[in-house]
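Blackboard transcription, Thursday session:
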Amino acid sequence: MWSQLYIDCNAGTVTKAPVPEALREFGGRSLIVNYIMGLVKAGKMDPKCDPFGPQNPLIFCTGVFAGTNFSTGHRLSVGCKSPLTGTIKESSSGGMVAKMMADQGIKMIVAAGVPADDKLKYLYIGKDGSAQLLDAEEYRGMGNYEFGDVMREKYGKDVAIASIGPAGENKYKAASIQISEFGEGYPSRAAARGGVGALMGTKGLKAIVVDKPDNKYKVEYANEELFKEAVKETNKLMMENGQKSHYHKVGTISIIDGTSRNGILPVRNFSGDMMFDAGEKLGSATFLANNAKRGGCNGKACQPGCVVQCSNVYNDENGNYLTSGFEYETVALLGPNCDITDLDKVAMMDRMCDDIGVDTIEMGDAIAVAMEEGKIAWGDADAAMALLEEVRRGTEFGKILGDGCEAVGLALNAKRIPVVKHQSLSGYDPRNTKGTGITYATSTQGADHTAACTVGYTTFGDYPRDTALYVSNKLQVAITFSDSMMCLFAFSQVSSRIDLLLKMYVGMYGGEMDISRVTAGLGVKILLTERAFNQMAGFTDADDDLPEFFRTERHQGTGEVFDIGKLEMETIFKF
Amino acid sequence: MIKVKINKEITEIKSGLTMAALVKEMQGQSKMECITILNGSVVVFSKWSETIINDGDEIEIIVISSGG
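(Written on the board underneath:)
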C-alpha cells in the first residue's frame, strides 16, 4: 500500500501512514486538489487563508501510474494555494524525485504548518525508508547546484533532490523548487510556477533528499495483465511518435523557429513587434550547431524510461557544462522578450535562475518590464544578469524582482504588465494564438501555457477565431487529466488513444471500463473543483481576462488584437 | 522527377524544387509551422528559398507544437 509522509513543520516531526482510501485513485493534479478540498471541507483550511500561513499545505506527489514502467509516469507534482496567484496551484516537473519516491513506496509528502523557529532543515529519506528532518543551517544561502553537489558527496550519486535556492529561502513569490535530473543530477528541472519555492522556504525546508531504497516498492495492480498489455502498446506508440517529434529531434527550443515567423513569439515585453531572425539566432540551427561543436547534447531523458527524451545539455564555448533542461519558454522570455539574441547569454541566465531558484518565465517577463520602464537598457544581457544577481543577494530591487513580473511593474509604475491572476504570461503572444489567450485568461492556475497551449493542436497561429474557445476548452480538460498521469509532451504523442490510458487506469485501480472516469473524473471534475476553490478564495469571472493592452494594441506583424469577448470566455467552464 | 527520402519514406518529387516549395507542397492548407533538416543539418527559414533539393537527399519536415 502506498504511503504518505506528513511533516509537521511546527513540531519538527515526520510521520508515515498509508495514503487515505479516498485519495487512492488520484495522483498528480487530481490528488492535490482533492487533498486540499478535503482540508477545506474538514474546516482545517480557509481558501481565503494567507498562503504563507500555517493552514496552507505544501504537497509533493507522484502521478497515478508511478512505480510502473509507463513512460513519463514519474512526473512530480507540487501543490498548494499559490503564494504568487492566490489560486490553487499544481506545478509539475520531470527529474528523479517522483521516481525515487515511488521506489520508496511514497505517493505523497505533505509539509504542514509553519516552524516555530527560523531554523532551516531538510528531509532525508534513507535507503531503509526512514525519514528524518535534519539541520540545514549550514546550507543557508547556498545555490541549488552547490547544494546538489554537497548532498551527492554526503549520500552518494543515487539521491534525488528537490531543493530551494536563496529565492525560496527568502520567500520570494517567483521562487521555484529545483529538481535533480536523471543522470548527472543537475538541478535543472523545476516546479517553477506560482511561487511554490517560497512556500517551501516558509516551511523552513531547504530540500527533500530521497535515497535509493534497499528494497524497491512493488506496485499493487487490480489487473496486472490488463495494465501490462495497455502500457506496452502505449509506450510503443509514444516512442514511435515521440522520437519523430521536434521534442526529440531538437528540443522545445525548436519552437522559436516557428513563433519568430508568425508573431507568436513575445518581443520586447509583448510589444507586438516581429523578430524574424530570432529563430536563426536562438533556435534549432544555432542550438544544434553549438552542441555539435561544444559537446552538448539533445534527445536526453530527464527521468528514467522516458521515450520522448526532449531534454538537453548546453555547454559554453569552451565545452564546459553551462546549463541543461534549456527550454523554449526560457529562451523566448529571457531572449527576444528582453531584446536579447545571444543564446549563450540566455543559457547563462537560465543557469543563474536554476541556481538561485526562480522561475525563468517570471524573470523574463519581469526584466522586460524593467527594461521598458528604463531600469536597464533593452538587450543588455549583462545588466539583466546583474539584476538576477540582485535577487540572489536580496537587494532592495532584488526582492521586488524575486516577487515576479507584477511586483516589478507596480514598483516601476508600468502600464503594460503581462500577467493574469498575478502570474506572468509564457512565450506565446495571445493576439496570434487566441486559444492560448483564452487559456491564460481562464486557467485555474493563472497565466499558464501548460494548462492548454493551443499552438500546434490547431493550425499554427492562424485558425478560425471561432474555434479558439472550443479548442482551449477541450484541451484544458484533456491536459487536466493527463496532469494526473504523465508528461504533457508524452501525452501529445498518444492523445488520440485515451482508451489505452483508461485500460491502464482500470488495470491499476479496477472498476468499470468507462471512459468518463478519465475525461470527467480526472478532467472536468478536477477543473471544476479547482475553480470552486478559487471562487471560495475570492476569485470571480472578472479575474478571467487578459491585460487590457492585448485588446487595444494591434500586433505590428499581423494586425491582430485579442478579441475574444469576456462573455464568450465565461462560457468555457459551462460543461 | 528525383527520388528523395522525406521523413524516412522514399518519395518522388519534381526536380529543381526548393525547400520552400517542398514545405508548401507538404503543408497543403494546414499552415502548420515546421523545421526542416536536410541531410542531418537544419536549414534555417531564410535559406529555404535558395536551397535546392537534389536526388538522394534525406529531408525531415517536423511540425512544431507548444511546450517548454
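Lecturer's comment: Chain A touches chain B through 48 residues (CB under 8 Å).
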